[in-house]
Write a structure and sequence with these properties.
Number of strands of chain B: 0
Number of domains of chain A: 1
Shape of chain A: rod-shaped
Largest sheet of chain A: none
Strand content of chain A: under 5%
Structural class of chain B: mainly alpha
Largest sheet of chain B: none
Radius of gyration of chain A: 45 Å
CATH superfamily of the largest domain in chain B: RNA polymerase sigma factor, region 2, helix turn helix motif
Number of strands of chain A: 0
CATH architecture of the largest domain in chain B: Orthogonal Bundle
Oligomer: heterodimer
Number of helices of chain B: 7
Distance between the termini of chain A: 151 Å
CATH class of the largest domain in chain B: Mainly Alpha
CATH topology of the largest domain in chain B: Rna Polymerase Sigma Factor, Chain: A
Largest interface: A-B, 26 and 45 residues
Structural class of chain A: mainly alpha
Order of helices and strands of chain A: HHH
Number of helices of chain A: 3
Helix content of chain B: over 70%
Strand content of chain B: under 5%
Chain lengths: 99, 174
């Protein structure tokens, strides 16, 4: 027996499992198939965000305007009812002095 | 590859490289580490690195040299890390029970165990010498060590293996 021949025989190459090649190719596939981000996707996103912000701002301004209008109407209503009370008092005093 | 997009052609080239060299890479890892799962994982990592470095390699010979070098050195690193928590020493390996003709599967299995019990560097040298049939100068280039170191470590490893086998066989001519 020759030790070196035995070592050549014992250490001969062996194949990996049958699915080895497929696994290697699968693991590198996502790297090679990764697509670059298209520039128009970014622009579209920025435009959509700007539109949303503008719409939100418009809605808030409209809400503020409606609220201010309601407050003015309420103030006018209060002022009118106070004027009514005052007018009635003036009428009562003038009626007493005439009689 | 005419008629194919460059990316697809490169992918096909890479696939053929994997098929051509997978037995070499896997066997280097398996014979140095004696652990199928770790050898598979290591071989897969080596091919992933190849995929990243493919553009830097200039010829089929360069690819083969690069794969041998990376597989051997990574397997050596793993073997050294494992050596810090020793699993098997040459003395602890049982001597082959029955020796017979060359190519005996039992003798082959016993020899693989004896090789696996060598310290990592001589183990890698023996694997590159007898699995890959490299001469000492080629082994020195793959492992980036002096040729003299390869020769002396190879002689010492063979003497250890001969001694272990002779103890069990007596009359063996090795």
């Amino acid at each position: 027996m020759n030790l070196e021949d035995e070592l050549r025989s014992a250490l001969r190459r062996r194949d990996p499992p049958p699915d080895f090649t497929a696994r290697v190719l699968k693991s590198v596939a996502p790297r090679s198939a990764r697509r670059p981000v298209r520039p128009w996707v970014g622009w579209l996103g920025a435009l959509a965000a700007s539109l949303l912000l503008a719409a939100g701002d418009l809605g808030y301004r409209h809400y503020q305007g409606e609220r201010a209008k309601a407050e003015v109407l309420q103030a006018i209503h209060i002022a009118a009812s106070k004027l009514n009370v005052a007018q009635k008092k003036v009428q009562m005093i003038s009626h007493r002095s005439n009689s | 590859m005419p008629g194919l997009a460059p990316a697809k052609a490169a992918e096909l080239d890479f696939a053929s490289l994997v098929r051509r060299h997978q037995a070499m890479v896997y066997s280097i890892a398996w014979h140095i580490l004696r652990d199928r799962a770790v050898a598979e994982e290591l071989a897969q990592d080596v091919f992933l690195s190849l995929h990243q470095h493919l553009a830097d390699l200039e010829s089929p010979e360069h690819v083969q040299f690069w794969l041998r070098r990376v597989a051997s050195n990574r397997a050596l690193d793993v073997a050294r890390r494992r050596q810090r928590r020793p699993m098997l020493s040459l003395e602890s390996v049982p001597e082959p029970a029955a020796m017979s003709q060359a190519g005996d599967p039992l003798l082959g299995a016993a020899l693989r165990k004896l090789v696996a019990a060598l310290p990592p560097k001589p183990r890698a040298i023996v694997v590159l010498r007898y699995q890959e049939d490299l001469d000492p100068a080629e082994i020195a280039r793959v492992l980036d060590i002096p040729v003299g170191t390869v020769k002396s470590q190879l002689q010492r490893a063979l003497a250890l293996l001969r001694g272990k086998l002779a103890r069990s066989m007596g009359e063996i001519r090795i």
